[in-house]
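Thread: Modeling a multi-component assembly for a lab meeting

Hi all, long-time lurker, first post. My supervisor asked me to bring a structural picture of a complex we are working on to next week's group meeting, and I have zero experience with this. I have the sequence lines for every component (968 residues in total). Could someone generate the structure of the whole assembly? Inputs are pasted exactly as I received them:
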Amino acid sequence: MPYHYNTPEDQREMLDAIGAASIDELFAPIPDALQLKRPLNLPPALSEMELDQHLRQLTALNDHAGTKVCFLGGGSYDHFVPSVCDVIGSRSEFYTSYTPYQAEASQGNLQVMFEYQSLITRLTGLDVANSSLYDGASAAAEAALMALHAGGNRTKVIAPSTLHPEYRQTIATYFENIDAELVTLDCPAGVLDADALAAAIDDRTAAVILQQPNFFGCIEDADRVAAVAKGAGALLVAVFDPISLGLLKRPGDYGANIAVAEGHTLGTPMSYGGPYLGIMACDNSLVRRMPGRIVGETTDRRGKKCYVLTMQTREQHIRRDKATSNVCTNQALFAVRASVYLAQAGPQGLRETANLCLQKTRYLAEQLCQHDRFSQAFDAPTFKEVVIRDAENNVAGLLRDALDAGYLAGLPLGRWYPELSDCFLVAVTEKRTKADIDALVKSLTAKSARQPAHV
Amino acid sequence: MRNTRDTQLLFDLSKPGRRAARLPACDVPETAIEDLLPASAVAAAPPALPEVPEPQIIRHYLNLSTLNMSVDTHFYPLGSCTMKYNPKRNERAAAMPGFADLHPLQPAETIQGMLHVLYEMQQYLSEISGLPACSLQPAAGAQGEYAALLVAAAYFRDIGQAAQRRKVLAPDNAHGTNPASAVMAGFNTITVKTRSNGGVDMEDFYKKLDDNIAVFMITNPNTVGIFEPNMREIADAVHAKGGLVYLDGANMNAILGVTRPGDFGADMQHYNPHKTFSGPHGGGGPGAGPICVTEVLAKYLPSPMVVKEEESGVRDQESAGTSSLGRDLTPDSRHLTPKYRLDYNRPHSIGRVRSFFGNVGVLLRAYCYIRTHGPDGLRRVSENAVLNANYLLSKVKHILPVPQGDRCMHEFVASGSKLKAERGVAAMDLAKRLLDFGYHAPTVYFPLTVPEAIMVEPTETESKETLDAFAETLFRITGEDPELLHEAPHTTAISRPDEVQAARNPMLCCRVD
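Re: Modeling a multi-component assembly
Sure thing. I ran the full set together rather than chain by chain. Output:
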């Protein structure tokens, strides 16, 4: 068999040393009636070469961002992954190492995590960051729980409908069996109306969760939302797009107390949605309520500066049922990749990347909306995504035609927003060229032969 | 060769004007940013990221990497963590553009190959667990526990017993995530005592078992490496009280194809594919936490799930011959009805616990692992994992007492209490000294039920020679000068860190100058 060493002779010698007649005897503590008396019903073993062929056959059935031009967004984006991220991320000492509980044998990981936390604080403008969570949605849910715990008797969390629908669903799941309520505010203008927030917020509200730019790509009035939240004594949780911070104000700049993000865009491919990187930062007052691993600087016995996992009394392996969260693993490998990404980008690279997204999204919206069939659903300025309304109300047919022409052209919004069933969300990253955009516009505006969708 | 000259902080390498990334010029007509974005939303300057050229980035991270132990470089007898070899073919598979460059919200007809893998994984994990329904969504073992407990809560709500069933019982040697997950899911946790062999103390169990039980969470084989002697009785008693049994699947590496949780009484379980199915640990993650449940609980599982349509006219991938290019050379079949799709229409589902489908990259590696092992190979994995652990136990028991006895499953827990009493050497001293000899330390001080616990799990991917050498080293260390051990490690990049100082005066990021 492929990965273990024991020859029949080794097994014999080992069994003799143990004092057992057979390997089966080692399983004797499992009552006979509970043992499986047949082989597992699984396909027979493949060699590496056969596996390779099998996977090629399967991947040939997939369209991907290398075979169709990808304009899909909604929380996962076809950003460029620089080669340095792959090189560092595939280094065995990073990807086959364990959680750095043994600090003396893990200074590489610990220093990188410390640097990652430092990079995230600079990115967000907040005081502290943890060493990562699972993904953006669960990080948002954890942030909501933090706010509830910090808020004492406050049991309400407000999220506008402009927060990613899957993030709202995740938070709702996390709230299902505890004393907490998620209130969703409708946003017909595509952005949260601060007056509507002011009307809904009260002294039971622990937090307001604001996505900036929001799910529709629109820029929210974060300053006003923050002021309303602060005025009611609630915390502001910001869900941000790391790439956008090359241009936009940082969550800490507009008064967020906790900031979370989906960080796969920093050097990790889309990978059909995971594993991803949950980024979390907060202000100093909340650090002891933060979930997840945190690395701190200290000194060793010889006085040498070093790094270690710290404040572990928050965590499940120490505090069990009193822990701030059940989170155990982080996404260390992707925190490594994100650090490398941010290091290679630098402030100018991040700014240029953000600007390319902004300009190209604007260009696409302008080109498309020159045609009578299409208009922008919302007036608010956008960053790298835009909601397009189809006057012919045939989004499914339109997107299917575009697919045939070679484009993953956008996300139909009717699934999450029935009132936007004539709309789709288009994302434009720095990877898309003018030629891509022109060709997509041409494809979408070609006279379609297809009848309205049958779905 | 280790180079510790070049391990300054990333920020110390920064110099204004240096840079690595070069982006293409903007090829669309540019509009001034102030005309596109409201002034109140725009930052005066981009974040103060370091400015470092590419060669320096590579040298920085590569030199840091050499300060880590890893499975590819060292033996990791780390109990409860199953630090087995991570096959390289799995890495190549996950990086294939046809998987890595898929957007999570692509239409089903464009991802039939991906959905095939995920559908098969649901089937494989159900078969291995003996539990017929599977959700691949949870992002980690702890999130799998949490999702399964939400499933249990939804079930009890449905049958009108939510108010009554508030209690989750778990043994005192359970992973800390068990009680933490139970609290997050809205339950109260009750700890059940265990005996010195790691088995559940049945007297205490019956004392705490009543009509208010929701779930009994058990790790089997348990964290001491013993198959729970009263497993069937415990499951029957919990079921008789109307409760559910949850299996913490952290130790599945011991029982693949030997026994199945569904067959020994579990109603729900999670897997740790990064342990059992060789996903790399990544320095702490990512992992994944797929869960399997009984038929009765299936409708509560997270959404979406992959479903296979009834006959759709698409050729079966498995039975058709494959050209050596790995490509189907017959005309494109994708315009037929999709064979697989995601089912979101599951009104009883608990919803979702994260965005998108799941930690697909980890699941894909697990898929490759299962496909390259097959049914016999998976059983051989467990056989050799158990053989290696018993062999190492037979050597270690002459050096350190192993309170649980002479046999174990995939891991065992030795006790350093005699060594501590006689020579003043703590389990931690042993662990740290092992680092000097090029071994990652075993798990120490867990489970809490064994004094001076030293928890050893060799896994099946180590040779007899490695185990012999490890036991010899352990023997040698126990005879060393206690002073030497108190000060260990001596050869690593740093000596023992001051953890108290780190927690008391937290310095969690480098200061902005």
